[in-house]
TrEMBL record:
This is RNA polymerase sigma-70 factor. SUPFAM superfamilies: NTF2-like, Sigma2 domain of RNA polymerase sigma factors, Sigma3 and sigma4 domains of RNA polymerase sigma factors. InterPro entries: ECF_Sigma-70_Domain (IPR052704), NTF2-like_dom_sf (IPR032710), RNA_pol_sigma-70_dom (IPR014284), RNA_pol_sigma-70_ECF (IPR014303), RNA_pol_sigma70_r2 (IPR007627), RNA_pol_sigma70_r4_t2 (IPR013249), RNA_pol_sigma_r2 (IPR013325), RNA_pol_sigma_r3/r4-like (IPR013324). Keywords: Sigma factor, Transcription, Transcription regulation. GO terms for biological process: DNA-templated transcription initiation. The keyword Plastid does not apply. One of its GO terms (molecular function) is DNA binding. Residues 102-153 form the RNA polymerase sigma factor 70 region 4 type domain. Belongs to the sigma-70 factor family. ECF subfamily.
Amino acid sequence: MADDAFTEHRPLLFTIAYELLGSAADAEDVLQESYLRWAAVDPATVEHPRAYLVRIVTRQSLNHLRAVKARREEYVGTWLPEPIRTAPEVSEDAILAESVSMAMMLVLETLNPTERAVLVLHDVFGYTHGEIAASIGRTEVSVRQIAHRARQHVHARRRRFEPDSDATRGIVRRFLLAASTGEVQALMDLLAPDVVQISDGGGKVVAARRPIIGRDEVARFVLGVIRTSAATTRVEPATYNGMPAARFLTGGELDWLVAFEIHDGRITGLYGMRNPDKLHRADTVRALDRGGPTHGNHDR
């Protein structure tokens, strides 16, 4: 019985943990810890299993997030969320696609753990302020204030983007072709003036230590990377975090991947992952789910 309930809601629980933590590995750890706690409970005493499980996962995620905050502050180079390979239906859910996009995940990193939990549970998953208050041990009034403050913070920093689609994949194909053939003008035409390129090597492989900003600088960086890539490198299209992406394989091994943020037909962000610790799980397609309506009401 316990296994059935946990399995049924696992995609939702993983999605919550991932959005709170920005790491698939940490999310899996939280789910394992949460399952052990759930298995120790008599299911007959639980009126709403999904709500109960969400509460466990939220609390475990908050504990985990507070523990890793210091570690991330000492990270070598720029930290990016662990990319997750997503199925096409994720891109069709505008709220879910935006919430797991690299840009949004980076904005969420600037919130404190409680703000992040409140905003994600309310704005993405539709839980009421009262339900969230019960999950994190705060009053409903406090949760409303936290949600308002967090939402203002996020809206001030949010970057618009278009999820993976035929149109955005076409832009990525043209970009990769221009880069591989050295067509500088064609490359520049596909980049927004304020485009940002961010790389994450984790201090373990060569990667840009700081964000690269501006069309000229990003174009120069991309052409330099392509020039120094091994002749045996193969490029595959993919979808990561609901965004169009490209996988670069050298000798059959995934060497790096890039997720593309696109708005109004121009590339506004490139998120390059080279950290091998984050890449070795990048082949797994993750089932994400926002769940249906909760047993409460969605409030604002």
